[in-house]
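Justification of resources, computational component.

The compute hours requested in this renewal are based largely on the per-chain cost of generating structure records like the one below. Each record pairs the submitted sequence with a full structure-token output. That output is archived, and it is also reused by downstream analysis tasks.
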Amino acid sequence: ERPLEGVKADGSAYRVMIVDDSMFVAKQLGQILTSEGYEVVTTACDGKEGLEKYKELHPNIDLVTMDITMPKMDGLTALEQIMAFDKSARVVMVSALGKEELVKKSLLLGARNYIIKPLDRKKVLERISASMK
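The structure output for this chain reads:
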């Protein structure tokens, strides 16, 4: 039996924060990740809340999934500010189809990877696990 992707060598879980204004997407992402042993420590419904929670919980977050389009503060701005706060932050962007320019921009700003909606379990896990390396 292969080890769960969300579990570190020492047996502890990678801690994830999900930032998405869609409850449905946040829930779906959470289910995919917890099924692989990741621990979802918190969720935020916009970039501003995501940034605040990241600063609050730092360094106890291993990975952030960040929606690009959200109210109050979009994912790119939040990404930029998280990276300014913590150069080694691991952020994976979540985007709808057709937002290639924003995805490119987010990778330039320091995002590790991206996931396209609708979510595909296999792709989500591949991209997240690649971002942890």
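DSSP finds five helices and five strands in the chain. The two ends are 21 Å apart (CA to CA).
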